[in-house]
From TrEMBL:
One of its GO terms (molecular function) is hydrolase activity. This is Beta-lactamase family protein. It comes from Streptomyces alkaliterrae. Residues 1-30 form the signal peptide. SUPFAM superfamilies: beta-lactamase/transpeptidase-like (SSF56601). Keywords: Hydrolase, Signal. The keyword Cell wall biogenesis/degradation does not apply. InterPro entries: AmpC-like, Beta-lactam-related, Beta-lactam/transpept-like. Residues 61-376 form the Beta-lactamase-related domain.
Length: 402
């Protein structure tokens, strides 16, 4: 995970794209019925390349890191560093963390399920479900489809780029950390600006699109998007450590503390504990709280075709190019990255105050990885990419070749 991307996490809700790894992990009820075995972490330096890569992430700055990964029926977990700088408590793989924009994959999954049920069409105009919401400064809900929201081709301005809101997220964070926002307010902040482009004409990451997507879920089902995610994804997969906190500002234990260098009046000069704040700054664009184990369970099920019918599965992974990132393409709530060894992984990154995460896996779901660091800075480039390459590229079987 690149330092520039991590710094963006402090200012917004996204770690850039899936510029690092991904995550998968076998669900407890794997279809084969074979019991997964855990490969112990903490081996001597040089004897466990994945653990060594995790150690290098922490050596580059963040207080701690944790990862869960799967290869075949073998599960690997690793940790490094401390979860709490005050107590020096060691990081554990069971510690919850804020996962930021990884939330987007779950939101997209629910909308695709609703389409499969015939309750909406991804090519429906936003105006059909949320009349009058997107109006002003050339923004028009009559012209934007649900699909464009999910693929970041809507042209909707990103509310996190609004000057006043950005200030509240960064230099003004200490005074505004508990400010609460309704989704309609976040959309209104975005609509202060003109569209970035005409819908469907280009690509640009927009958290606003996913806030609107969450509102569409509620309009279609009559229930909050978080309840639908819980009912359709978290509960069926047994993701008991995952939640969408709403207005809750604290993290349920066990959880890591989150640290940032990019908030307060003099960014970059000190480390601040930013664990507690209102997740309403993110909502459906990035409020997820989870663990690396739960993330791998989710992506394993998604990539393995257990959450979507074939037509919607194909739609999710039909991706468009990402400008200025030739190794990446963006589907519906998922990003692909072609690694240097030729393997392509699918997933999403997530960055939010004091936390940077990545989750993805091979397209067949056989090999997976999810990890998190509880600090939004790093003194070395691409240390997260190092862990990704170790897991997906080292000694890969021929079946993993593109």
């Amino acid at each position: 995970m690149r330092p520039t991307a991590v710094r963006r996490a402090a200012a917004g809700l996204v770690l850039a794209l899936a510029v690092t790894a991904g995550a998968l992990t076998a669900p407890a009820h794997a279809a084969t019925g074979e019991r997964a075995t855990t490969v112990p972490s903490g081996a001597r330096p040089g004897t466990d390349p994945a653990q060594d890569a995790l150690d290098r992430i922490v050596a580059a700055g963040p207080p701690s890191a944790a990862a869960t990964a799967l290869r075949g029926h073998h599960t690997w977990t690793g940790t490094a560093g401390v979860a709490d700088l005050d107590t020096s408590r060691p990081r554990t793989v069971d510690d919850r963390f804020r996962a930021g924009s990884i939330t987007k994959t779950l939101v997209a999954t629910v909308l695709l399920q609703l389409e499969a049920e015939g309750r909406l069409d991804l090519d429906d105009r936003v105006e059909k479900w949320l009349p009058g919401l997107i109006r002003g400064n050339g923004n028009n809900g009559h012209r934007i489809t649900v699909r464009q929201l999910l693929q970041h081709t809507s042209g909707l301005p990103d509310y996190t780029e609004d000057k006043r809101f950005y200030q509240r997220l960064t230099t003004g964070f200490p005074e505004h950390r508990y400010d609460s926002y309704r989704p309609e307010e976040l959309v209104a902040i975005a609509l202060r600006r003109k569209p970035d482009f005409a819908p469907g004409r280009d690509w640009k990451y927009s958290n606003t699109g996913y806030v609107v997507a969450g509102m569409v879920i509620e309009a279609v089902t009559g229930r909050p998007y978080a309840r639908e995610v819980h009912r359709r994804v978290l509960e069926p997969l047994g993701m008991t450590s995952t939640l969408l906190p709403g207005r809750r500002t604290t993290l349920p234990g066990p959880a890591v503390r989150h640290y940032s260098k990019y908030v307060g009046p003099r960014p970059g000069t000190a480390v601040h504990d930013v664990t507690e704040f209102s997740p309403t700054i993110a909502g459906a664009a990035g409020e997820l709280v989870t663990t690396s184990g739960d993330l791998t369970r989710f992506y394993r099920a998604l990539l393995g075709g257990r959450l979507l019918p074939p037509a919607q599965q194909r739609a999710m992974f039909k991706a468009v190019p990402v400008p200025d990132a030739p190794a990446h393409r963006y589907g519906l709530g998922v990003v692909s990255q072609r690694l240097s060894c030729g393997v392509t992984v699918w997933g999403h990154d997530g960055g939010i105050h004091g936390s940077a995460s990545s989750a993805a896996g091979t397209r067949d779901g056989r090999k997976v990885l999810a990890f998190n660091v509880n600090g939004d800075w790093s003194d070395a480039p691409d240390v997260g990419q190092d862990l990704t390459d170790v897991w997906f590229c080292a000694d890969r079987p021929s079946a993993d070749r593109p």
